[in-house]
Amino acid sequence: MARQFFVGGNFKMNPASRKDKVALVKLLNEAELDPATEVVVSPPALYLIPVKESIRKDIKVAAQNCYLKDSGAFTGEISPAQLVDSEIPYVILGHSERRTLFHETSDFIAQKTRAALDKGLSIILCIGETLKEREAGETAQVCEEQLKPVVALLKESDWSKIVIAYEPVWAIGTGKVATPQQAQEAHKDIRTYLSKTISSNVAESTRIIYGGSVNAGNCKELSTLPDVDGFLVGGASLKPEFVQIVNSKK
Ligand code: PEP
């Protein structure tokens, strides 16, 4: 089954002003984007609704995180129900910055994935190893351990709403991109794990995208790899080169 190429822009806690946010949306609204690629941008929570309302309709919007419950005394959190009510279709879960800076565990991320799916959201689920883990030869094992609690909580049919973002922590925001060989190997191992633990159908149809210092210079080669179905882009999603990354397959 052909997997649609997917490019996500994770703005993180950027841009720093509404003026810059408006300029970024204008840039994307005026760009020529490959219609064959699914494009999703993920602004900070404060900008989700203004971006959704001002961006072209062929670009979807994602939250960068959400909590488990529909509503209640959870200061600072956003619920999956609120995202759905605000017509935000995607949420990023398990980003390495959430795992390391905010101490989110794989079990907690799996529970949030379950809660978000139950409300009807699609998920960009991030996994990936640290440099120490890669150097110890533990990349596949770490990815499996991060996926395991998610696999345990999801039904086979849920996987059509999951995009897995393989993001080696050592490549995020460092300018150090995985080599095509490293990316292909990790993506293939993740697909094999899905096949072993769920089904060959889910393994074949689930998009596995790469994230970590993707830019206009390296996106073309990475986009040709058989198991790389797109990108999650941080720093470069705030720049005009994001358009070239979206158009990597063109
Ligand atoms: C990210 O934050 O998901 C990411 C991949 O960042 P960058 O592209 O800046 O490495």
From TrEMBL:
Pathway: Carbohydrate degradation; glycolysis; D-glyceraldehyde 3-phosphate from glycerone phosphate: step 1/1; Carbohydrate biosynthesis; gluconeogenesis. InterPro entries: Aldolase_TIM (IPR013785), TIM_sf (IPR035990), TrioseP_Isoase_bac/euk (IPR022896), Triosephosphate_isomerase (IPR000652), Triosephosphate_isomerase_AS (IPR020861). It is an enzyme of class 5 (isomerase). Its EC number is 5.3.1.1. It comes from the Eukaryota. It catalyses: D-glyceraldehyde 3-phosphate = dihydroxyacetone phosphate. GO terms for cellular component: cytosol. The keyword Coiled coil does not apply. GO terms for biological process: gluconeogenesis; glyceraldehyde-3-phosphate biosynthetic process; glycerol catabolic process; glycolytic process. Gene3D superfamilies: Aldolase class I. Keywords: Gluconeogenesis, Glycolysis, Isomerase. CDD domains: TIM. Pfam families: TIM. GO terms for molecular function: triose-phosphate isomerase activity. Homodimer. NCBIfam families: tim. Belongs to the triosephosphate isomerase family. This is Triosephosphate isomerase. The lineage of its organism: Eukaryota, Fungi, Dikarya, Basidiomycota, Agaricomycotina.
